Amino acid sequence: MSENYAERLEKCYSGAVFDVLRTMGRSDQVLPATIRPLDPGHKLAGQVFTMTGHPQSAASDHETLLAWTGMLSKAPRGSVLVCQPNDSTMSHMGELSSETLQARGVRGYIVDGGCRDTEFILGIKFPVWCRYSTPNDIVGRWIVEELGGTIQIGGVTVHTGDYALADRDGVVIIPAEMVEEVVAKTEKVLQTENLVRQAIRQGVDPQEAYLKYGKF
């Protein structure tokens, strides 16, 4: 069923999902606008698996790489990996890591931090959303702290098991307990929007179209 939700969400767009969440009293589910896709043409949807970490200047190269590769081996197939690195200076995704996650069937990566090797990542078409790019890496200076827990990004609480939909407009997080209702309502919204779009193209007055379909 989780795979079904991911596939259905991929046919939606973030604005429509937000509109549904807003009507359900959850307009607080959008990640900060500074988190952007490496490739604006990508769309990413799926069940969230969270990761958090922190700068650790006393850590050895081996310690940080052991923790990082351990994370890569534990990221579930079919998931969207969402990271709160608690850092704004280093890259938290790169060439070999994106290659590994893609090979393991991870759908994509969203981080409230940085990325490097972006040309390579674009070349393999692995979906990544991040705040910035830098060649500065984590080796010996940043360590994975927890997998599969609860994180905060820009005031949004993100749990493992929630769902994410990310596109060129931004990232929306759907709480796990709401996903069935949100997906179904979003699909109905898209159907209604198609009717409004058709009416507008046929010359119907926009206010008349809104009053008829209750959507604009």
List the helices and strands and how they pair.
Layout: H1 2-10, H2 14-23, E1 36-37, E2 44-55, H3 61-74, E3 79-84, H4 95-103, E4 108-111, E5 114-115, H5 118-124, E6 128-130, E7 132-133, E8 142-147, E9 150-153, E10 156-159, E11 163-167, E12 170-174, H6 179-201, H7 206-213
Parallel strand pairs: 2-3, 3-4, 4-6, 5-7
Antiparallel strand pairs: 1-6, 2-8, 2-11, 9-10, 11-12
Helix pairs in contact: 2-6, 6-7
Would you give an account of this structure?
The structure is a single chain. The chain is α/β, with parallel strands linked by helices and 216 residues long. It has one domain (2-177): Glucose Oxidase, domain 1 (3-Layer(bba) Sandwich), CATH 3.50.30. The chain contains seven helices and twelve strands. The chain has helices spanning 2-10, 14-23, 61-74, 95-103, 118-124, 179-201, 206-213; strands spanning 36-37, 44-55, 79-84, 108-111, 114-115, 128-130, 132-133, 142-147, 150-153, 156-159, 163-167, 170-174. Helix 2 (14-23) packs across helix 6 (179-201) and helix 6 packs antiparallel against helix 7. It starts with a helix and ends with a helix. The mean pLDDT is 94.
